Amino acid sequence: xxxxxxxPPLNYPPPLxxxxxRAQRTLKAxxxxxxxxxxLLAHTPLRQTGAxxxxxxxxxxxxxxxxxxDVAQFSVALVRLSSTTILIAVRADxxxxxxxxxxxxxxxATFRSVTISAQRWAQPRLVTRTFAAQADISRLTAVINAGxxxxxxxxxxxxxxxxxxxxxxRFTPRAAGRPSVLVTLGACPHAYGITVNGKQQSSLWDDxxxxxxxxxLVGVR
Length: 221
Description:
By secondary structure, the protein is an alpha+beta fold. The chain has helices at 33-43, 134-145, 152-156, 209-218; strands spanning 20-29, 57-63, 69-80, 86-96, 111-120, 126-131, 165-173, 181-185, 191-196, 199-200, 204-205. The radius of gyration is 24 Å and the shape is elongated. The relative contact order is 0.15.
């Protein structure tokens, strides 16, 4: 497409967020908006409702569309140039999965105990219990080891409704010099953080499994 200037709204694309990559293309087509939409909706994951209007657009969010890609956003907008031609603007943004470090993979045999603190929203009382049974430690570390990394740029742009209870899990090593681990499941249930010997690791998507395991042990939901 070789227009000197794109018409609105195509001339103001949304800014690219940190940690994302973008591919976009603008095509000129001898078509009408309605027939173009019919073809697009039949061959893409787009969803369109309502009337077709100038500058109309549709989009879709694709979770984990390819190995190594955490999420992709795909959008199309149509702008009429004349009675016989339209512009079709296609944009795809994608966020790459961060790499999990070896420190994030926890060996349950190296921990003497795990202390779980639970605090319900807007309540000052903090419930704390310590568990030394190897089965309990193994159950928690298995969930963490199976976790999927969550890009900071993706999580930062998400809105959430706070949930009832936040949890903090402290894993204490058996031997001196071995790393201690702190896992924080906050009130925003998108991702949880892991700190190993005071060093922040990649966040993991909060799929609810670790929260359920912690709640079952400490008895606070």
